[in-house]
Amino acid sequence: MAILGVVVNPTAGKGRAEGEGAKVPALLRARGHEVIDLSAPDLAGAHTSARQAVVDGVDALIVAGGDGMTHLGVNVVAGTTLPLGIIPLGTGNDVARILGLPRHNLEAAVGAIERALAEGPRVIDAVRVTDTAHSMSEWYAGVLSAGFDAAVNAKANRLTWPRGGSVYVRALFQEITRYRPYGFEIDIDGELAWQSAAALVAVANGSDIGGGMHIAPDASLDDGQLDVVIGGPISTATLLTVFPRVYRGTHISHPAVTVLRGREVTVRARPDLGLTPPDAHTDGERVGPLPLSCRCEPGALRVLAAQP
Known about the structure:
The chain is an alpha+beta fold and 308 residues long. The chain folds into two domains: 3-120, Rossmann fold (3-Layer(aba) Sandwich), CATH 3.40.50.10330; 129-299, Tumour Suppressor Smad4. The chain has nine helices and 16 strands. The protein has helices at residues 17-22, 24-30, 43-56, 67-77, 94-99, 106-119, 148-158, 166-175, 236-242; strands at residues 3-8, 34-37, 60-65, 84-88, 122-131, 136-140, 143-147, 182-188, 191-198, 200-204, 226-231, 257-262, 264-269, 280-282, 285-288, 292-303. The strands form three sheets. A six-stranded antiparallel β-sheet has the order 6-5-16-13-8-9. A hairpin with a 2-residue loop joins strand 8 and strand 9 (191-198).
């Protein structure tokens, strides 16, 4: 059986995961695995203990919680050969959804991890995002949001109800009243690709944000490319028409939406063209203000999920 480092976030899903998350170490031990509990009172402490476990040697790192815990796990194991297992207990669970993992079902999630341990991990791309002005560097697996989508994400993270993906719908309608186009400049693979006002910019390795919004429906986790979805410039009325289509992925056929592709993408704010964009989010977590550069690193992440 495997030696598993396990990190549980008891606050995932606005507290709903506290009871379920606490069961994870015991369940894994009952299935015969050796478990090293790496949980901590906060994400910073969990990140530190998880990194130490990698140094000490485990067969896999398992995170239980929402997108924040997945983000923590990605940043611990990306660029290494250590596989990441995800037990999705949070609100959005977007990376888990893209990977086809069981959500809010402990037995099924553990079963998926065990099958992948036996058959071998799935190898996918990961994205390194950097801010050269402050020497910041971190990884993400899903989507970087910059614009209205990031504002909705930030609002949803502050709301305490409703539970589940519906919190993003509530956040959307609250933020729409404040919407004004943002100013962006985008380079793709070293060339200027976009310079205008826009509602949103998403730099996508995976397809989903916000608890199931298919922001980049054609994005693939293992093609070595990023899909850059740009909405705008559009009015509030058009945004109200286009944004709900994100749930079906049909927004990309709207004439106001542009999809570009490349391996390396830099997004800058252009206050002369529109409002300054809000802080960007990756995999549901705040990463910081623009400018940011995103580089797809093929095969940089191993996940305990079924092969595509």
